[in-house]
Amino acid sequence: VLEIASSDLQGGVAAFGGGGARVDSGGVLRLIGSRVANCVSNENGGAVWLSEGYLEMESVELVGCASEFGAAIWSSCGSVQALDCQFRSNTAQQGGGALYHRGLAAHDYTDCVFEANSSSQDGGVLVAEGANAQFLGCRFVGNRADRGTLQYSAISFGCSGCASGDGVVRYLDSVIAFNGEVGVAASLMDWD
């Protein structure tokens, strides 16, 4: 277990993945009360690249990171638990302005804020392929993507107050594209 607390990680650059941190094959990264800012990856995970590992975050700010997929966090078969975290102004070229999750893994986000994240193509906040994602008490504000702010494939979807039809959910004049399901409980979505 690597624990990083009360720290500021800024300006990291990675050719493949994890401009801020890279967690591989069963590793555990615990970030507490820290900030990861302006980190860049040419491919996946501008801030954090996660493969078959575990990421635990509490009171962490991930801001201004960029990559092709998953500007803040990219994960493949790795699990994320985030409590009271902020994902702001992260940008993906292809998909997952804040998050890109793939493979059989569970991801839990509680009391988090997703604000002004964007993707040139899919999922301004999230693209999930075969992963389970749960959002509880989260706030989504001003996130953008050409093809849906939240995009899902083969996971569960649930959102109070959403109207669905033909794989598209419209909520407060924003479009959520999905093919499967995702859990969103007591979260406030505000896309203007």
What does this structure look like?
A hairpin with a 2-residue loop joins strand 25 and strand 26. The chain contains no helices and 28 strands. The termini are far apart. It has a 15-stranded mixed beta sheet that branches. A 7-stranded parallel beta sheet has the order 2-6-10-14-18-22-28, with no helix packed on it. Strands 11-15-19-23 form a 4-stranded parallel beta sheet, with no helix packed on it. With 192 residues, it is mainly beta.
Write a compact overview of the structure shown.
With 192 residues, the protein is mainly β. The chain has strands at 2-5, 8-10, 13-14, 21-24, 28-32, 35-37, 40-41, 48-51, 54-58, 61-63, 66-69, 73-76, 79-83, 86-88, 91-95, 99-102, 106-110, 113-115, 118-119, 126-129, 132-136, 139-141, 144-145, 150-159, 163-165, 168-171, 174-185, 188-190.
Features:
192 residues, seven-stranded parallel sheet, mainly beta
Distance linking N and C termini: 41 Å
Report the major sheet.
Answer: 15 strands, mixed
Classify the helix fraction into a percent range: under 10%
Low-confidence segments, ≥5 residues, pLDDT <50?
153-188
Strand elements, count = 28
Helix and strand run: EEEEEEEEEEEEEEEEEEEEEEEEEEEE
Instruction: Give the CA-based shape.
Output: globular
Relative strand content: over 45%
Secondary structural class? mainly beta
* Estimated radius of gyration: 15 Å
| Number of helices in the DSSP assignment | 0
**Average pLDDT over all residues:** 80
Secondary-structure map:
Blueprint: E1 2-5, E2 8-10, E3 13-14, E4 21-24, E5 28-32, E6 35-37, E7 40-41, E8 48-51, E9 54-58, E10 61-63, E11 66-69, E12 73-76, E13 79-83, E14 86-88, E15 91-95, E16 99-102, E17 106-110, E18 113-115, E19 118-119, E20 126-129, E21 132-136, E22 139-141, E23 144-145, E24 150-159, E25 163-165, E26 168-171, E27 174-185, E28 188-190
